[in-house]
């Protein structure tokens, strides 16, 4: 029994020695390749390289294509240059298309009938009084001479009245010359207060003027009249030269 046990021990030792030698000198068969792993993340950007050496300038003409290939980065925008001279005037362009017709205008006003409407749209007069007698106070001045201008006949020299036919804005004025004190005023049915003018100068000829702008309606009258202010009784009996001019015309 003891001899059999010793044999077993020797066999075991021999196996261990044999196994140890294979671990150091014997190679087993390669295994199967493993499954590919997932792709890794992108790496960091590399460091910017150093600036290169400037290109050598070649003698003679330079190939434009080479320059374009060697074009560098765009520089910053330069300052605006000075304005150049004015260019030549271009040719006249083609005529445009006709525009749309305008809307109807405002309704017109009737100022007369037929061939008389143009005459009624105008009105002007200028009359002269050369009578040496003193004009009576608070009475309309009449005129002994034919009217210098009376178009189209709105002024009556016999009565001394101007009668408005065309409504509008008128201008009236008068001028007088005498050797005595005289007061005249423009009167009208369009005026609330009459406009009076006087001149007192005993050493020289009395020169008197006045004027007014009036807005008249059709049928309203305008006239000139004398009035009493500071005149003496002897002034009314004066028979020396006297002159009165009365004018008026339509403005618009």
UniProtKB/TrEMBL annotation:
InterPro entries for the chain: C1q_dom, Collagen/C1q_domain, Tumour_necrosis_fac-like_dom
GO annotation terms (biological process): complement activation, classical pathway; innate immune response
Gene3D superfamilies: 2.60.120.40
Keyword presence, Disulfide bond: yes
Domain C1q: 118-252
PROSITE patterns according to UniProt: C1Q (PS50871)
SUPFAM superfamilies in the cross-refs: TNF-like (SSF49842)
PANTHER family, per database record: COMPLEMENT C1Q SUBCOMPONENT SUBUNIT A, EMILIN ELASTIN MICROFIBRIL INTERFACE-LOCATED PROTEIN ELASTIN MICROFIBRIL INTERFACER
The protein, known as: Complement C1q subcomponent subunit C-like
Protein species of origin: Seriola lalandi dorsalis
